[in-house]
Amino acid sequence: MVGHVDRRLPAGTRSVYGIDLGTTFSCLARVSGSGEPQIVPLADGAQTLPSVVLFVGADDYLTGQTARQLARARPDDVCSLVKRRMGDGDWRFVTRGAAWSAPAVSGLILKALISDATLATGEPVEDAVITVPAYFGDEERRATVLAGEYAGLHVVDVINEPTAAALSYGFARFEIGGRRTLGGPGTVAEEVALVYDLGGGTFDVTVVELADRRVSVVAIDGDHQLGGADWDEKIVLLAGDRFLTEHPGAPDPLDEGDSAQALLLAAETARRELTDAPSTTIVVEHAGRRSEITLTRDELEALTAGLLDRTVALTRAARDAALARGVRGIDRILLVGGASRMPAVARRLEAEFNVPVELSDPDLAVARGAAIYGEKKALERLVLADLVTRGQLVDGAGVDAAAPADLDAACRRLAEVLGLPPTRVRRTVEVQVVNVVSRGFGVLALNRFGEQGAVFLVHRNDRLPVAVRRSFGTVRDDQDAVTVYVVEQAGGVESTRVEDNKVIAEAEITGIPPGFPAGSQIQILFRMGFDGILEVTATHEGMADRPLTVRVETSAALSQADVAREREQVARARRERGGIPGAFGAPADGRSRRASGVPTERAAPAVLPGSADLADLADPADLAVPGDRTSPVGPARRAHPASAADGGDDAGLRLRRLSPPGAGGDPPSRRRRAQRPLRDLRHPAGRGRHARRRGGASPYRRGLGVLAARP
Ligand SMILES: Nc1ncnc2c1ncn2[C@@H]1O[C@H](COP(=O)(O)OP(=O)(O)OP(=O)(O)O)[C@@H](O)[C@H]1O
Ligand SMILES: [Mg+2]
Fold first, then answer.
1. C-beta separation of 558 from 566 below 8 A
2. If residue 366 lies in a helix (H) or strand (E), which one and from where to where?
3. How many Å lie between the centroid of ligand 1 and the Cα of residue 340?
4. Which single residue of 114, 603, 624, 694 has CA 20 to 30 Å from 90?
5. Which of 438, 460, 434, 437 is nearest to 373 (CA)?
6. Cβ of 24 below 6 Å from ligand 1
7. How confident is the model over 368-387, as a mean pLDDT?
8. Cβ(352)–Cβ(330) under 8 Å?
9. 648 lines ligand 1 (CB under 6 A)
10. Is the pLDDT of residue 6 over 80?
11. Mean pLDDT in residue range 558-568
């Protein structure tokens, strides 16, 4: 299909590849000419590429299996598990005179995947859907998009890994060779599956309702610092201890980079072996001594029981959240992620949840599902354009808004142009992914006691799209400006404490004319579309029809200057193929070191803790906007913060979830700003008087001089 499409319709109809950018392994898939999602083999014939980068010069790198194998000789030049650093703007891998951010290192992995795929398919890889753990927050998602852009990709979308796995599973289960295989002819079968995804570095659990061509996410939970690598670490520590017991007085193998690397590799191999065998041997060689350590599966399971417990607790939480949302129960558990192969996983889950547990293509399902979704996006884009051109659909509407006959005709026309069976186009376009909010989002505010904290407007597992409005009020008479800090839940549960949240954006209403008393209403509206992009609108009651000066700042991971430099750096980087002398040739310079703790070019995020600027005194009953929560908010557009900063097309403050760095964000400023607090209107007891009375006692106010500005 692909070559065919490219020849006839060069723009907008290329394959959209699905890429699983994994913590330990990555892979890439596309939908074949016959409509099946297939893994694209890599240059060495493997289906997955170890997500490991070995730097052999300032601009030269190796990746994949070779990098992994050579890691022992160059521990200071090897970067692995970089996905765990995504979204951490201060982290750099510094080696051989160059510093690499997490998106830049990931960009190198993607470049390697792309070049192998281009060799295999003979076509350029330009458009891709990249998968992310469901539990990834805003900055991690943006970092992933940036990694794709560094590698020269147009990232069509990011999709949650478990959702992609469920799509792939649903594809295999509901449609093999074009026939529906579940529920029989004419029936629409549905089942509720819990996707347990234990990969190399992240754990995601997702409850989905599955039907033919449809995946509806009901609940998600997870921990992006939990995966096979943690099991390996336990083994490494045990092996190190046993080595030291056997050789008292010997130096600790974990203190030396190459021995520690070797031990890590051996631990991972041992763990895989214990999936099939009851016992295995780990060889530790260090400082001229050698130990052969026997490890049994029972020992491994005892050693790592606490890790498995953590996954079970999160699984239970997701199950309970789904039940609370009206799901009738879990029909089966799907295991994805390579580490879910460990026999203890299925055994424990069967015992805990008493439903069938199925290992479902654990290494490749995610990339396959992303390819299915990518094809859907590619064909849908064309069908939509056709319908809009014919005046059968308004611009921005989804395919489900089209009249069935119009949609059918558009699919037929496209099928003809592309030389595809019409049913395939129709069914691909019909693929539907219904998602939920992955984290709570809110604003920083002062409560009725004058204490600052996060007030959440949307919550994890709220079904998308969502729209919630809430009223706040100014604190002072004649308050002329208001700063709004948008926060994202940082931990596993929502917490009102400022330090448990991450400020993802900040915006400001300025130029409020004098004459408004304390308690003037500021309405804040959060809307999140199907794509999970948050849009925040804030309006001062007296200024709904007046243009406002709005400035949007971000605590985004990288400044524009960083992004421009790194784009160039990744583009320049040359990938060496395995076995090249350069891998051992040039000695690492003395400054090579692991990145954590290395000073970086960028300092603290723009928003400093303690600078909350809204007071919330609202009654929880006021929160929901009746009818608003469930009504579609239309396709959210990614907006340049710069354009939002122009004052926007609407009256009121308008601030959108910020584009990936490089797409036009202002460089973050680090100055502490003056305080312009708000409080809620709806609590008469809290109006003005209350806030003022309490004001002096609040550490926030004391510390930041709000009292001085008080009337
Ligand atoms: N047979 C096996 N037994 C046990 N563990 C295995 C087996 N095969 C692979 N693994 C483990 O699976 C993990 C890799 O899984 P996978 O490729 O799904 O993760 P990933 O996509 O790199 O990570 P993530 O999804 O967390 O980003 C590694 O920790 C690896 O050791
Ligand atoms: Mg994975």
1. yes
2. helix 365-389
3. 8
4. 114
5. 434
6. yes
7. 93
8. no
9. no
10. no
11. 81
Alpha-carbon distance of 484 to 63, in angstroms, equals: 43
* Probe target for ligand 1 pocket from 83, 160, 272, 361, with the most ligand atoms within 8 Å of CB: 272
Contacts of residue 591, defined as CB under 8 A and 6 or more positions apart, other chains included, come to 94, 97
Query: Minimal CA–CA distance to 527: which of 538, 519, 518, 540?
Result: 538
Q: What distance in angstroms lies between residue 444's CA and the mean position of ligand 2's atoms?
A: 34
The arithmetic mean of pLDDT across residues 398-418, rounded, is 92
Which residue's CA lies nearest to atom 28 of ligand 1? Answer: 200
Ligand 1 touching residue 227 (CB < 6 A):
yes
Nearest alpha carbon to residue 21 among 84, 95, 88: 84
pLDDT score, position 654? 34
Q: Give the ligand whose atoms come closest to the C-alpha of residue 164.
A: 2
The yes-or-no verdict on residue 531 having pLDDT over 80 is no
Q: Where are the beta strands (DSSP E) in 607-665?
A: 653-656
Single-letter code of the amino acid located at 71:
A
- pLDDT confidence bin for 13, thresholds 50/70/90: low
Cβ–ligand 1 distance for 201 under 6 Å, the answer: yes
**What number of CA atoms fall less than 13 Å from residue 678's CA on the CB side?**
34
- At the topology level, CATH places domain 441-556+603-709 in Substrate Binding Domain Of DNAk; Chain A, domain 1 (2.60.34)
Q: Are strands 60-63 and 574-575 parallel, antiparallel or unpaired?
A: parallel
Strand partners, 499: none
Q: What is the pLDDT of residue 224?
A: 79
- Confidence at residue 533, expressed as pLDDT on a 0 to 100 scale: 67
If we measure between CA atoms, which residue out of 363, 67, 332 comes closest to residue 228? 363
Measured in Å, residue 334 CA sits from the centre of ligand 2 at 14
Residue nearest to atom 3 of ligand 1 (CA): 272
The three-class DSSP label of residue 135 is coil
Residue 537: helix, strand or coil by DSSP? strand
